[in-house]
């Protein structure tokens, strides 16, 4: 299988490319810059300008769209919000334009989404049919999915995984959380009762591979592990795995709002999200439980450090 990946140099794309290659598939990346470095063929595109190497889409049997600026980076100024939106919508508009042309054999597109779609769920379990919320992240994610929808109208199988908090020691939310715990500065945020629906990076990549390989996968799926944790429980388990005490009180929500503004919803809003649909589809998690996922990540990290 030939797989074309946008956003392929990020945390998820890098690991997905490795696992696909190990499984015998051929990977190529769509990138804003030409590069001869690395093991993958690279096609150049500029979504904002609407330009793309004409050989890119005809290369592929399937496309994985991970393009989109990181919502956790930079203050949410109006300019930043426009950048977050454009980085998602422009990429999909350009992909749709190319997929609408004859001369390619693309059978499936996996276009990333996120559980931010559901907003702050409290203790109400969100399933794929749960309607979207109305905060900035929810509206951004809804527009992201709406921009992908025309691809399905072309007769191409479209899968939209709503991705939870991806756990990895190589990047993402876990790295700064672990850093504070290692320094003895870890503490639950806000009430600590907001849910965090997480997924181990390797489980996410294997889920993507299952979605690409089997025509039965279609539409939205929650890409989360089956056992979400509250922020307080997550912090406690992380401290236990890292063998560090938790000495500080909870960080008040008002302080986070003063510090982060609207962006505080990333850490104060909880998403309690169901994995039932992906499990019913037959996917089996290697790391369904938080403690096991964190232990694997940090044991693997230690082994890698010893080898260096």
Keywords:
alpha/beta; Rossmann fold; 40% helix; 308 residues; 13 strands; globular
The topology string of helices and strands comes to EHEEEHEHEEHEEHEEHEEHHHHH
- Overall number of domains: 1
Tally of alpha and pi helices: 11
Gross geometry:
globular
Helix content: 40-55%
Strand proportion? 15-25%
Q: Structural class of the secondary structure composition?
A: alpha/beta
Name of the CATH superfamily: NAD(P)-binding Rossmann-like Domain
How many angstroms does the end-to-end distance come to?
34 Å
User: What is the C-level CATH assignment?
Assistant: Alpha Beta
- Could you name the CATH topology? Rossmann fold
Helix and strand layout, with pairings?
Blueprint: E1 2-6, H1 11-22, E2 26-31, E3 41-46, E4 51-52, H2 56-59, E5 62-65, H3 78-99, E6 108-111, E7 113-114, H4 136-153, E8 157-163, E9 165-167, H5 174-182, E10 195-196, E11 198-200, H6 201-213, E12 219-223, E13 229-230, H7 231-241, H8 253-260, H9 265-268, H10 276-280, H11 290-307
Parallel strand pairs: 1-2, 1-5, 2-3, 5-6, 6-8, 7-8, 8-12, 9-11
Antiparallel strand pairs: 3-4, 10-13
Helix pairs in contact: 1-6, 3-4, 7-11
Short description:
With 308 residues, this protein is α/β, with parallel strands linked by helices. It is built from eleven helices and 13 strands.
